[in-house]
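Annotated sample (chain length 185).
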Amino acid sequence: MALFDKDKLLKATQFATDKANELVEKQKNKNKNVFANISNDIPNSKVIKFNLEGEYYSRENIITFGTLNPNFSMNKAQLEKADHWGLIIEEYDFTNDYEITLEYEPKNKYDPNAIMVLFNGIKVGYINKYETAEVRQLIKHGIVGIDGVIEGTAKKVLLRSKEKPNGFVHKERENFNIRILIAIK
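Output written by the structure step:
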């Protein structure tokens, strides 16, 4: 007698893969919508994307923008009971609707050319030091719009494998990634 049904295991694995791909596409589309909005709102503009630095040190500020997902605190038995097989559960959901401000920080002890990025008046990171000169030029010549997105919350998913047919919870730690888009004429 087999410990697991091979066909059921293959179907469960395919289901988990499909769900993961579906959620990745959903996040990509969510981000495309944020980025498309700035392009559509400001015709004849050029949009430039920048990744931020220093998010690790602003973690407590960043999570204030997220809504805690109650399913994230569920243990393996609770996930099984809720039939959450293959569903990627993120710790936080970010709305990605922020008022973004750029501030020079000449007294920054690490970089006197630092540009701090604030979402709704709260520090979330800095423009990469190798891109501050470019951003300063954009500011000097006139930014006509700015938008941004927060990604990278902790995730977990209930899966089965050949080695663990009764299931296991796979977890990934958070790794925030914040991007901003600057529109210029």
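Annotation: The chain is about 30% helix and 30% strand.
Annotation: The chain has a mean pLDDT of 82.
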